């Protein structure tokens, strides 16, 4: 008799209205109940199937989540509503979960992305909303994912479990391009959405078509020409092509003759002498400049040496794209090129410098190569368009991770990961300051982008000089050092101030003042100063951190470092290298106690007898 599981089932059924036909007799063994199957020893419930038994209302927390050995759970075709309880994350052995045809709502249940043994997950025909999270990729054994007929919105993440054979997201509110990883599924898997494109559906439109970007300005960049050419035009083109061919041959012959006469001039220099950049897509090399390359030819996408990409401006213009967001200096797009590469294109507005100066600054930025900095891969400058091309970071920003959909059953960002983000972002900034001699100028949570292991990269650095050296006016107010408000000039020390605010954000879970956008937020340094030290633990620290043990001392130490960074007087702020060293010192005491390792083993504490003790890192941290 599975005593503990029986109690969990009784708790569930007593709190969930249901049809009369489901008569579970509490004096009989739970293994004999309708819909219940136990393991061979009759000590645990392994299958629970309750389809169409008139279950109504919410699933109470701490009921089904206690069935620790459950392999199959079917609650399909009932009238269950509300959110999936967060403690479903404890059903570590669950393989099949059928929740279709109910009235469940809320965002994609974060608890389910921790059930790494799931093979089939069916959430179809419910009222789920919000984005489909990238962390679905945690479910590496998934063979069937059914999300159709819900209200999921936003773009589809690159879902890529290798064994996925059934996939359906039809009839949602999704938009944007279908990722390469999902393009193998039929059109019916995607039909009935707001604005999905690419893959088996219609090709996506290019994200911008700017005549200024077209080398031959009157020809549309994408699209078929519908009119047929007249015979006269064809003859004219043929004659023209013949003349051009003849001239090219003539030039070739002349060049060959010249080379034969001057053997020493035969070898071109190995790399372009005046630039670290190489142009992709130009037929003429930079050394031809003296020969007078037309302006249109020079306006090419400029790549930095050592980059992994090989596409040209036209490939970029043909890419399908979705808007990631509108920032203070322009709009960022996620662009998926036809060959599958995904990049981020930042389209700058109000650039205040001429081409030469712009290029010089880009060359400086292109040299920044560090594991904690998002590399600038290429840029484009013309009179009307200024574009920057960066690597796409699929795990999103710290801002989204920290503030996105709080309280709706998501996995909070735990302490160890907050420390990891603080440290890695600090290292990125220190590299920028020390090796690059570059001021970031815009440190904030949406410019801290994450890798899937939650290592952080600083993004969007060093752009102030192209806006005339002063801070663009609509930057988020809460990160700005007091002196920058007056002078509008950013410095290494003002970066340290902003970094201090970022640390306070990690510690408090609160977003700094967004003033200029009219959104809520607070002046974090002033608010922390207003709380007396004795009250820090109760008042200042994020409530989501109170569930972890043995971290208070570390939080206090990080808070002290943050407060040093946000000193009003710039000279009193430590250099970023010093800040990093101080943070590393906190970390050292932390790893010594060995707590981190103990909590990552899902086999521990999941026997259903006792709930696993809450440690510094909850088991199986979900990737955002
Ligand atoms: N390389 C990238 N990979 C993934 N997401 C990115 C990338 N760059 C930017 N983003 C995200 O796109 C959104 C818009 O970014 P953008 O840099 O245009 O504006 P911002 O960060 O909000 O403001 P600002 O222009 O002041 O930096 C942000 O949510 C940001 O986190």
TrEMBL record:
The chain crosses the membrane at residues 232-256. Keywords: ATP-binding, Kinase, Leucine-rich repeat, Membrane, Nucleotide-binding, Phosphoprotein, Receptor, Repeat, Signal, Transferase, Transmembrane, Transmembrane helix. Residues 587-604 have a biased composition (Basic and acidic residues). Residues 263-284, 587-624 are annotated as: Disordered. One of its GO terms (cellular component) is membrane. It is found in: Membrane. One of its GO terms (molecular function) is protein kinase activity. InterPro entries: At_inactive_RLKs (IPR050994), Kinase-like_dom_sf (IPR011009), Leu-rich_rpt (IPR001611), LRR_dom_sf (IPR032675), LRR_N_plant-typ (IPR013210), Prot_kinase_dom (IPR000719), Ser-Thr/Tyr_kinase_cat_dom (IPR001245). Pfam families: LRR_1, LRR_8, LRRNT_2, PK_Tyr_Ser-Thr. Residues 606-616 have a biased composition (Polar residues). This is Probable inactive receptor kinase At2g26730. It comes from Nelumbo nucifera. The gene is LOC104592317.
């Amino acid at each position: 008799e599975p005593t503990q599981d029986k109690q969990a089932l009784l708790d569930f059924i007593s709190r969930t209205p249901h049809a009369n036909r489901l008569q579970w007799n509490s004096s009989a063994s739970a293994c004999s109940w309708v819909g219940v199957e136990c393991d061979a020893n009759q000590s645990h419930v392994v299958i629970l199937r309750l389809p169409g038994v008139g279950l109504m209302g919410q699933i109470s927390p701490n009921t089904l989540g206690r069935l620790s050995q459950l392999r199959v759970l079917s609650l399909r075709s009932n009238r269950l509503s509300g959110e999936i309880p967060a403690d479903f994350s404890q059903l570590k052995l669950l393989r099949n979960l059928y929740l279709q045809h109910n009235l469940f709502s809320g965002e994609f249940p974060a608890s389910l992305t921790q059930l790494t043994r799931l093979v089939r997950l069916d959430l179809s025909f419910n009222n789920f909303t919000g984005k489909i999270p990238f962390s679905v990729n945690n479910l590496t054994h998934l063979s069937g994912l059914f999300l159709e007929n819900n209200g999921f919105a936003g773009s589809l993440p690159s879902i890529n479990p290798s064994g996925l054979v059934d996939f359906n997201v039809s009839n949602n509110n999704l938009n944007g391009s279908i990722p390469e990883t999902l393009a193998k599924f039929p059109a019916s898997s995607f039909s009935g959405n707001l604005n999905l494109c690419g893959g088996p559906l219609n090709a996506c439109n290019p994200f911008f078509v700017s005549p200024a970007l077209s080398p031959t300005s009157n020809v549309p960049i994408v699209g078929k020409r519908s009119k047929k050419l007249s015979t006269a035009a064809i003859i004219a083109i043929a004659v023209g092509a013949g003349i051009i061919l003849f001239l090219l041959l003539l030039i070739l012959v002349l060049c060959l003759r010249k080379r034969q006469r001057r053997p020493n001039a035969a070898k071109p220099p190995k790399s372009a002498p005046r630039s670290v950049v190489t142009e992709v897509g130009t037929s003429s090399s930079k050394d031809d400049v003296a020969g007078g390359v037309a302006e249109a030819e020079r306006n090419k996408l400029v790549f930095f040496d050592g980059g992994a990409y090989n596409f040209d401006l036209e490939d970029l213009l043909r890419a399908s794209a979705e808007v990631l967001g509108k920032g203070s200096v322009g709009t960022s797009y996620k662009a998926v090129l036809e060959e599958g590469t995904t990049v981020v294109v930042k389209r700058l507005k109000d650039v205040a410098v001429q081409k030469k100066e712009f290029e010089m600054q880009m060359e400086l930025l292109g040299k920044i190569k560090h594991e904690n900095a998002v590399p600038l891969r290429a840029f484009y400058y013309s009179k009307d368009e200024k574009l920057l091309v960066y690597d796409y970071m699929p795990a999103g920003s710290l801002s989204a991770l920290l503030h996105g959909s709080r309280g709706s059953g998501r996995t909070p960002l735990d302490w160890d990961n907050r420390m990891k983000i603080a440290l890695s972002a600090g290292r990125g900034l220190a590299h920028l300051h020390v090796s690059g001699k570059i001021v970031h100028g815009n440190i904030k949570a949406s410019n801290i982008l994450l890798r899937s292991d939650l290592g952080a990269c600083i993004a969007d650095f060093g752009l102030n000089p192209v806006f005339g050296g002063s801070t663009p006016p609509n930057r988020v107010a809460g990160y700005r050092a007091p002196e920058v408000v007056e002078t509008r000039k950013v410095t290494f020390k003002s970066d340290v101030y902003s970094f201090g605010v970022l640390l306070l954000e990690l510690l408090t879970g609160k977003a700094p003042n967004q003033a200029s956008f009219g959104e809520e937020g607070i002046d974090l340094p002033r608010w922390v100063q207003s709380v007396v030290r004795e009250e820090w633990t109760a008042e200042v620290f994020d409530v989501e951190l109170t569930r972890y043990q043995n971290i208070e001392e570390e939080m206090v130490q990080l808070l002290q470092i943050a407060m040093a960074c946000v000193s009003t007087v710039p000279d009193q702020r430590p250099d970023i290298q010093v800040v990093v060293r101080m943070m590393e010192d906190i970390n050292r005491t932390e790893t010594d106690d060995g707590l981190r390792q103990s909590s990552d083993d899902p086999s521990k504490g999941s026997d259903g007898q006792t709930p696993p003790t809450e440690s510094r890192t909850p088991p199986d941290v979900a990737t955002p």
